[in-house]
Amino acid sequence: MRILVAPDKFAGTLTAVEAAEAIAAGWHRHAPDDEVVLAPMSDGGPGFVDVLHASLGGDLLAVTVEAPSGDEVPATLLLVGDTAYVESAQACGIHLTRGELGEFGTTVGVGTLVLTAINAGARRVVVGLGGSGTIDGGAGLLAALGADADVSLDVGGIFLDGITEVDLGIARSLVDGVELVAATDVDNPLTGLFGAAKTFGPQKGLDDDTQVVMDRYLEQFAAATDRRLALEPGAGAAGGLGFALLLLGGHRVSGIELVADAVHLAEQAAAADLVITGEGAFDFSSRAGKVPAGVAAVAATALRPCVALAGQVLVGSREMRALGMDAAYSLVEAVGESRAYGDPVGSLTELAARVARTWSS
After folding, report:
1. Which of 15, 164, 177, 197 is geometrically suited to a Cys-Cys bond with 201, CB 3.0 to 4.6 A?
2. Are 130 and 88 contacting, i.e. CB atoms less than 8 angstroms apart?
């Protein structure tokens, strides 16, 4: 058999590349003669650059950027021809804020990555949006590119209060002639009931009152720039980084679809007998632009079965099939929670070997 392995990261334990390698090792433990092809995936969040580098090659450029707190952190962007891939989570990810005080975090570091890519000769800059710990509407990114306002743009969203004027002239001139692409797994607007503050504020450490306050400040930011763009799908991605990229003339694409196209997932699925995907928690949120649903859709188009290996499976069989899966297997159920978290590589390898017994002819 020919097996295509296309998982997302297992958040907090395994990168997508590590997960794919563990699944392949487990599969070969039971079926050593099967051909296993690895295509680790990302929806634009953490692991975006590593996944694309594993599939596309290219040159990695190390950069030191400003973290949400103002400290310096290392980051890496990927150059493939005249296209640069930037992973916003490296500069403003929730792992850097520990899910706390997101309203005080800045996205200046993401702007530095974009500027570095342009200075390196990129004429197309794809920014993966996901896993952010900040909520500043992308004001920090704009500041790093030279934008100015009647309040400070580079110190966090909480300081957008009272903003009435924003000058984007320098920032827009810097990106003139450069295609900016926001790759994201969500299509939320910047503000409102389904906006950045109300939808993603809790995971960034915002309590109910602070969510209301930040939604108001982001509305002020939108009024000072472009209210219409604030309502566009994806404007609220990564705490509003999507909005900043739209303000600079960028456009949004589905992160999973972009990565799938880049790694030729459709062609690889058509050549496979079985497609395997996976992620940390397989639940109903997996249907909204996430890797498993995207991979399952590609497999369905190719008329190939698709199964998921996940840290936890939190949907029933009917819901699983609605998400496009023929089967889903839980790491926690197979080996127990303590081992699943304590030895994720060994546990996933063991689970993959068990699954191979069922699916490998």
Report:
1. 197
2. yes
Q: Tell which residue, 36, 50, 55, has the closest CA to residue 275.
A: 36
Residues 6+ apart with CB under 8 A from 343: none
Report the 10 Å Cβ neighbour count for 197: 30
Q: What is the DSSP letter of 138?
A: T
**The pair of three-digit structure tokens given for residue 232, joined into one six-digit string:** 């566009």
Domain ranges within the chain, ordered by starting residue = 2-41+264-359, 48-256
Cα distance between residue 81 and residue 79, in whole Å: 6
CA distances from 289 to 144, 159, 243, 343, 348 (A): 29, 31, 18, 29, 24
Predicted model pTM: 0.93
Residues 6+ apart with CB under 8 A from 245: 127, 138, 141, 180, 181, 182, 252
The angle that helices 16-30 and 344-359 make with each other, rounded to 10 degrees, is 50
Q: Which of 26, 51, 57, 23 is nearest to 39 (CA)?
A: 51
Looking at domain 2-41+264-359, which of 3.30.360.10, 3.40.50.10350, 3.40.50.300, 3.30.70.1450 is its CATH number?
Answer: 3.40.50.10350
Amino acid at 23: I
Angle formed at CA 226 by CA 44 and CA 96, multiple of 5 degrees: 35
The predicted-structure confidence for 152-175, as pLDDT tens digits, reads as follows 999 999 999 999 999 999 999 999
Q: Per this entry, what is the length of the chain?
A: 361
DSSP letter at 232? S
CA 178 remoteness from chain centre:
22
Distance (Å, rounded) from C-alpha 289 to C-alpha 360? Answer: 29
Contact indicator for 117, 175 with CB cutoff of 8 Å? no
CATH code, 48-256: 3.90.1510.10
